[in-house]
Amino acid sequence: MLDNIKEEIKKETTNIKTEIRQKTFGYILTAFGLVAALAWNDAITNLINYLFPFEKNTIVIKFVYALIITFVVVFISIYLTKINSKEK
Questions:
Q1: What is the pLDDT tens value at each position of the chain, 88 positions in all?
Q2: Which residue ranges make up each domain of the chain?
Q3: CB-based contacts of 44, cutoff 8 Å, min separation 6
Q4: What angle do CA 45, 46, 48 make, to 5 degrees?
């Protein structure tokens, strides 16, 4: 009986350590993704300012940027969803 309890505790400890490691790696990868997204944000903002030389910080340029990013994200999401469903 005591051996079973010790074995269960050992197994649960191993499971918790594995889960913590997986979550930590996931958070680190998410942080790197955020850094990449911020870099792309800056690059796209500069591109839009170059292509559409409006006065800085106008509401029009912000809406143009928001619309472009929204369309790009939607198309990428649809594409990745289709790829994922084909793999299953």
A1: 778 888 888 899 999 999 999 999 999 999 999 999 899 888 988 887 788 777 766 787 778 788 888 998 899 989 988 888 887 6
A2: 1-39, 52-88
A3: 65, 68, 69
A4: 65
This prediction has a pTM of 0.57
Q: List CB contacts of 69: < 8 A, sequence separation 6 or more.
A: 44
What does the alpha-carbon distance between residue 71 and residue 77 come to, in Å, rounded to a whole number?
A: 10
Two tokens, residue 62: 């912000």
Three-class SS string for 19-36?
A: HHHHHHHHHHHHHHHHHH
Distance CA 88, CA 33 (A): 25
